[in-house]
Write a structure and sequence with these properties.
about 700 residues, alpha/beta, eight-stranded mixed barrel, about 50% helix, globular
Length: about 700
């Protein structure tokens, strides 16, 4: 078992033993409701060997946890249970449904804390339950061989109704049965497959290397043990199509223990793979123009700067701001404005090589970068960009002429960090726009005249805590299905006696630039949120989960986990009431260090939410590496969503991804009933935004929401 498994706060064997009686009771009730054969059984007869099965799984899970050896999946009790069910006249469908209900009950009770288990423990639990099903199938096949033809036919009908693929072989590995689902997945008929070696029909490849592997059934025959493949394998059909799949196989034995062959169950997991790939593309590209988004631009710029440093080259970053774009929108309509932005993006792609070095940076703003020899070369490229945009655009039979203000920053003169270079180019474009538009301006240090203002703001911010100027407001998070409050987000506010209400967008970046200051403020926010939770708990209000934003500066601290643990102990709070929000873009810049910290937080029982989801450039592999509980759809995707097909596609894809991975999905920035209805219709769980309420003081939040629970 890996190191992360050792840090797991909840262990599978503890859960099974603690919840055993509750699991068995829920399972008994569900089985009696759904399975007619179980209705007349006594409680003892119905339980049969299920208590021993659960204890056996727990015992093996405990050994697995302690020894780090390969787990021994329990087989004895599923076999006894299947034999008794056969004697009581259960069909195979009824017996396998019992295990389906058992799985449902276990995961229903486990769901609130499932992310506290390791991936290895969850896999082991599924593997143990899968083998119980396989043991039932094995037992029924063995018994059916001794029964009349009618009984064999009943078994065949049952197997042919199973949604997963089922393949059976003889002891030589030759296929003697394949259900319709298997024929559909493998793309071959039963007649074609009968008598052929299973390894020649179930052609299994490693997803990463495309190396040929033995299929699970062949392995089960050779080693005499249950074998699992996936989810990182592919099945190759006769037509060459590759199917992402999972396989589980077990040896078949007769009453004397002699090997009869193997039975393999497998499933097509293409849907979740396709969803992941689709969202990976959408999250890295602008929905309207198809250009890379800013996060992907930063990623590409990092690579280019590394290469430029090695080869001592110069790179110019150009920030383009379309002049008076609002006038175009007002005159020709928003659809024409969107079409114009698409055509601008296409032209920029033709001016810059490669085209991926261009991105849409904002509503009417674009950024491109290119290797240049010197500043004069950058001037020439800037003029090329101007000429590219000055040519008329044909939109709905109208000739539209636009200009752009361009800001330029140079590597290495203006910085060595992508974020700084992009910021400087944007600053220069604002100066170009202020100086009359339709021009290009290089960044200079003189453009940082507001540096002193930021310095003063920093000094005031250091005193804000001690002077009681910082407060926490709370914005409700609403269940879209029930309309009831499910949680709240704690939002920091600064009321300055001289400056008035200072926006977090203004002072948080300043705090983050000075790590100790951000840590001090972040610690205060966490402490204040826990303190407020304690007040509401003491007042007798129903428990409510509070989400708190965590900056990358805090995440990099070695004592963050210890600090949160101390807060929970000080205020006597269950960890489930606290959720930490981390923005996707920040998470991706620190993914390596974040894994250990977040796993440690999960071990405490803290929920993890990915904020601004969909804006970061990643392969989404972190959703497998990190124990994420919630995806928060970025509010930019919600603006005019009902009028924008690309945004609809992104939101639907995120919701589908969350459903397939068992992760909550919440949308922030909901401002109208149309958007709320769209989210509800497409299965989004929760939402927050001005449509429901702005962030309010604790007293008002208590009066408006907590007293209504």
């Amino acid at each position: 078992m890996n190191e992360n498994s050792k840090q797991s706060r909840l262990q599978l064997h503890q859960f099974l033993r603690t919840e055993k009686e509750g699991i068995l009771d829920d399972w008994r009730k569900l089985s009696k409701q759904k399975i007619s054969a179980a209705y007349h059984l006594s409680d003892k007869q119905q339980r049969n060997r299920m208590p021993e099965l659960l204890e056996s799984i727990a015992a093996n899970a405990e050994k697995f946890s302690a020894s780090q050896d390969s787990p021994n999946v329990p087989r004895k009790w599923p076999k006894h249970h299947a034999q008794q069910r056969w004697e009581f006249g259960f069909t195979l469908e009824e017996t396998t449904r019992e295990y389906s209900f058992l799985r449902r009950v276990i995961f229903s009770r486990l769901t609130p804390r499932i992310d506290e288990l390791t991936a290895d423990e969850i896999a082991f639990l599924n593997e143990a339950l899968d083998e119980s099903v396989l043991e039932a199938v094995t037992n029924y096949i063995s018994k059916a061989n001794q029964r009349l033809t009618s009984e064999k036919e009943r078994l065949k009908v049952t197997l042919e109704c199973i949604g997963d693929g089922v393949v059976c072989t003889d002891s030589d590995g030759k296929i003697n049965y394949m259900n319709p689902a298997a024929q559909g997945i493998l793309g071959c008929s039963l007649e074609y497959a009968l008598g052929q070696q299973v390894n020649d029909i179930m052609i299994t490849l490693d997803e990463g290397t495309r190396e040929r592997l033995k299929c699970a059934a062949q392995c089960a025959i050779e080693n005499g043990r249950m074998t699992h493949r996936g989810p990182d394998v592919l099945l190759r059909r006769p037509d060459g199509k590759l199917i992402p799949a999972e396989e589980t196989a077990a040896p078949l034995r007769n009453a004397s223990g002699e090997l009869m062959g193997a039975v393999s169950t497998f499933r097509d997991i293409s849907e979740i793979t396709t969803l992941t790939q689709r969202l990976g593309y959408l999250s890295a590209h602008d929905a309207l123009t198809g250009l890379p988004n800013r996060a992907m631009m930063v990623n590409r710029l990092y690579d280019s700067l590394t290469e430029a440093e090695q080869q001592q080259n110069n790179i110019a970053i150009f920030h383009l701001d379309i002049d008076q774009f609002k006038d175009t929108n007002d005159m020709f309509g928003r659809s024409a404005g969107d079409m114009l932005l698409r055509k601008v993006a296409k032209r920029l792609g033709s001016c810059i090589a490669p085209a991926e070095n261009a991105c849409r940076a904002g509503n009417d703003e674009f950024t491109v970068f290119a290797e240049v020899q010197d500043q004069q070369n950058a001037v020439e490229l800037c003029e090329t960009l101007h000429e590219c945009i000055r040519r008329s655009f044909k939109i709905d039979n109208n000739d539209i002429n636009i200009t752009v203000s361009i800001g330029i920053s140079m590597y290495p003169d203006d910085g060595g960090d992508p974020h700084r270079l992009l910021m400087h180019a944007e600053t220069a474009s604002k100066r170009a726009k202020a100086e009359g538009r339709n021009t290009g301006t290089f960044f200079t240090d003189l453009m940082n005249r507001d540096a002193e203002e930021r310095h003063q703001l920093q000094l005031h911010l250091k005193q804000a805590l001690s002077k009681g100027q910082l407060t926490l407001n709370f914005q409700p998070q609403i269940s879209l299905s029930s309309g009831k409050i499910k949680g709240a987000e704690a939002l920091l506010r600064w009321e300055h006696p001289e400056f008035g209400q200072v926006s977090p967008a203004r002072f948080i970046p300043i705090a983050e630039q000075h790590g100790d200051l951000m840590v001090e403020i972040g610690d205060w926010v966490l402490s204040q949120a826990c303190h407020q939770l304690r007040i509401w708990q003491d007042a007798g209000y129903q428990s409510l989960r509070i989400s708190v934003n965590v900056s990358i500066v805090q995440l990099r601290r070695n004592n963050l986990v210890k600090h949160i643990s101390e807060l929970l102990e000080r205020y006597q709070l269950p960890p489930s009431l606290l959720q930490l929000e981390i923005t996707e873009s920040l998470l991706m810049t620190y993914i390596a260090g974040a894994i250990e910290q977040i796993n440690a937080l999960k071990a405490l029982g803290i929920d993890i939410s990915v904020d601004d989801f969909g804006t970061g450039y990643s392969s989404l592999s972190y959703l497998q590496e990190l124990p994420v509980d919630e995806l928060k759809i970025d509010k930019r995707f919600l603006r005019d969503v009902t009028q924008n097909h690309e945004k609809k596609a992104i939101i639907k894809t995120i919701i589908s991804l969350g459903e397939n991975l068992g992760i909550r999905v919440l949308a922030e920035g909901v401002e109208d009933v149309i958007t709320a209805d769209f989210l509800k219709e497409n299965g989004c769980e929760c939402a927050q935004g001005f449509f429901y309420s702005k962030a309010v003081h604790p007293e008002m939040f208590e009066a408006q929401y907590l007293r209504q629970l």
